[in-house]
Amino acid sequence: MGIFSRRQTAVIERNPADDTGVSGDEAAARSVALDPALRALTGRWTIDRPHSRIGFSVRHAMVTTVRGAFADYDSTLYFDGARPSESRADLVIRVASVDTGVEQRDAHLIGRDFFDVGRYPEMVFRSTSTVHEGGETFRMTGDLTIRDVTRPVDLQLDYLGSVLDPFGAERAGFDGTTTIDRTEWGLVYNQRLKAGGTMVSEKVRLQFDISAVRSTS
């Protein structure tokens, strides 16, 4: 559930007939192979919140970076290791759960200047397509909704591996990143600095550190 890479590469499914008349580089891109171990991961998964982080970082006053995370969210994940294009993710975040480590700053973020939680309590990501970019890297495109504004984003998603934990749960790890312009979602509040620049950067990096557990139902 990119946040996000803008790279454009080929889908992994390969039809040999499509190679007619294409260059060697194009044919190689079309023949990118998936790790066979990924096929065993096909199925439904849920983000394990105590071992995951849905976070963000943003430049503050031009000289430092503020980091935060959202603690309360629901997730629905489906991963298809044989056909990544069938993979999908839904993530619904309760924005009031934002935590930057400073109560006054968190109160400002959920107020009307930023998220306006009273009117827009949730932030939502719903995937629309998934492409294997090679190796253990995927690109998941989806719709991100903040303050009732929905815009497409691309999430670079790296598979970190899978393991059977001591409690018998099957886990898979993914890292996702993207950078968005918050003003495109109506988050336009700012203050100008006397020396030039702004108090809060318009660019926000979204970070998804995911430990997913296979669903048994």
TrEMBL record:
One Pfam family here: YceI
SUPFAM superfamilies, A to Z: YceI-like (SSF101874)
Limits of the Lipid/polyisoprenoid-binding YceI-like domain: 44-213
InterPro entries in the cross-refs: Lipid/polyisoprenoid-bd_YceI, TTHA0802/YceI-like_sf
Organism: Streptomyces thinghirensis
Domain of life of the source: Bacteria
Record's protein name: YceI family protein
Family per similarity comment: Belongs to the UPF0312 family.
